[in-house]
Amino acid sequence: MTKLTDSPSWQALAAKANEVAHMRSLFAQDPQRIDKYSLKAAGLMLDYSKNRIDQNLLELLMELARDCDIQVKTQAMFRGDMINTTEKRAVLHTALRAPADADIRVDGVNIVEEVQATLAKMEQFVDSVRDGKWKGYTGKTITDVISIGIGGSFLGPKIASEALRPYWTDPLKCHFVANVDGTAITEKLKSLDHETTLFIMSSKSFGTQETLTNTLTARNWFLAAGATQADIASHFVAVTSNVTKATEFGIDATNIFPMWDWVGGRYSLWSAIGLPIAMLIGMSNFRAMLTGAREMDQHFLNAPLEANMPVIMGMLSVLYTNFHDAQSHVVLTYDHYLRGLPAYFQQLDMESNGKHVTLCGQVVDYSTGPVIWGGEGTNGQHAYHQLLHQGTALIPADFIMPLQSHNPVGEHHAQLASNCFGQTQALMQGRIYDEAYAELANTALSEADKALIATHKEMTGNKPSNTLLMDKLTPQTLGALIALYEHRTFVQGAVWDINSFDQWGVELGKTLGNDVLKRLGADTPATELDSSSNRLINLFRQGHI
Length: 545
What we know:
Blueprint: H1 8-16, H2 23-29, H3 33-36, E1 38-41, E2 44-47, H4 55-67, H5 70-79, E3 105-106, E4 109-110, H6 111-130, E5 144-148, H7 152-163, E6 173-177, H8 182-190, E7 197-202, H9 209-224, E8 236-239, H10 243-249, E9 256-257, H11 275-281, H12 283-302, H13 309-323, E10 328-333, H14 341-353, E11 371-376, H15 377-381, H16 385-390, E12 397-404, H17 412-429, H18 433-439, H19 447-457, E13 465-472, H20 475-496, H21 504-520, H22 531-542
Parallel strand pairs: 5-6, 5-7, 7-8, 8-9, 10-11, 10-12, 12-13
Antiparallel strand pairs: 1-2, 2-13, 3-4
Helix pairs in contact: 1-4, 6-11, 7-11, 7-14, 11-12, 12-20, 13-20, 14-20, 18-19
């Protein structure tokens, strides 16, 4: 057994997790249950009353959190301790939205000063492009921005930009490219004018294979259209820590924005990686997003465990993953602008907590990192919600919805809300056999058919869900929402005693991919790898099966 599974708090949870009554009974016993199991923070409300918990079990969850030193580990992260132990780095995405007068030190240097300087540089750059002062090499105003990145350098900016579509205040268009498939960037470039297009390349090393390949293709397209190497400075900027490579590429040193080792890619949209977001919504709205995240940071850092939104959500995930054998978790967004959020949270959670050894290298004897998936609103109700209601797997769910719509058309938003709330109710209470049979009472079916169909209509219920509400989707509430899931991810990793901030599995794939790339271009057939890989490489070289 590991230290975690051998602990008294873990053993107590294991003994009690399945003794809680059905949620239908819990609500019947306590009609005001939501008053006890809901809270507000940073412009968000969490209703977690539709979970398989009672007061005793919640206290046991919090006891486990205390035994795992959640508050101590949280303070260490905010302080800048080297909690990414395998890469010997601090984890300070929270410093990107810290107050300007904060003092957070890495190697004796107050990094907040550099963060603030970068925000000021971003503001100057963003304003110059949005105001039309930044010109292309022929003197034309920039109309389109292509953001080239991969992973967090792509997904965070893209999804946040989509979410904040109502705050786009300029005709400037932004396009996102990540996939190394040549079709992705080719299709983007087809409709653009090289004289009015600006490229933002985001790569800490300026050597990430997919990002560099797409950037080289963009440069070739730009030069082939009649521009010169010197003109690159007017159309390419970079977010990177490798200034030398960026300047060799042709990017003016003044157009290079920093990245820091103490910020992981999936936590980086608050930095200059967020330039595409700022381009679209303006720096004042970008700063509002930072404000919302900072409010959630302060709540997470200071609220007691029992009233701490990220802690509660993280511990509920631990409950279902480790004591109810839940293998996945679904995120359901009842707002079209938030349709990409499940994919963002998927990367955040699965890349962080998809680990199999503890911080000290011991193989775990418990599950970590459930599969995160989901989609938008009522679309899913006509697809995978069937599995949620009547499938054999337990799949905890998060429902996310703003109470006010940016587009209040007729009864659309009321119908959307009715579906959202109705789904959580149905998951919780289900439908017992007698209720299903009663619904068929006045039909022309035979008694045998009624009995049969009633069994098909029966639903066990007791399916857990959280409901997250906000008044309206704004830059500030979006910032708080993303920060909430960042900290929820941290809480899980802290309990599981894993490093949530490295990604060696990703690195292995990159390394082997580079080796395969060399073999694809070799003059002789591949023979040195496994038979499958050799065959696939040789088929690719042939160009046919």
